[in-house]
Design brief:
alpha/beta; four-stranded mixed β-sheet
Length: about 140
């Protein structure tokens, strides 16, 4: 019998859908592949980047199912995307004005980290043979 569970997809509650969609689509290169629109407003979407996905939904600030967090909802949440070339992702997102940490090798992988508008920590990582703690600026690629 094959595996029943096929994929884990993070579901982020966001404070402003327009800001988050702009960040993920225009900044990080995700594409909206599914969406739910209510009264002309995007309420939920499924974003895809290669084989990876995540979902966004703006939390209601008024009404019966409203919720207003005390701080940024994503603080303390990290999502790691394993990719073919984290350095290419770093170059792409920083060229679009996204703040990302300078890549460094950790646990046998290049890792670059960033934080979305709601504080969710997003990491892109790719395998490498280089020594631990090698910094992107210290090599020529």
């Amino acid at each position: 019998m094959g595996a029943n569970v096929k994929q884990a997809v993070p579901f982020f509650a966001v404070s402003d859908m327009e800001t988050s969609v702009h960040y993920y689509v225009d900044g990080l290169g995700f594409a909206i592949t599914k969406k739910w629109i209510v009264e002309g407003k995007l309420r939920w979407c499924w974003l895809q980047h290669g084989d990876a996905a995540l979902m966004l939904q703006e939390f209601r600030k008024e009404g019966h199912d409203s919720w207003v967090p005390e701080g940024k909802v994503g603080v303390g949440v990290s999502i790691c995307f394993t990719c073919e070339d984290a350095l290419a992702i770093y170059r792409e997102v920083t060229s679009r004005g996204i703040q990302a940490s300078k890549p460094v090798v950790g646990n046998g992988m290049w890792v670059t980290s960033l934080s979305d508008p709601d504080g969710y920590k997003i990491e892109f990582q790719s395998y490498t043979e280089l020594p631990e703690e090698t910094e992107f600026a210290s090599i020529t690629i």
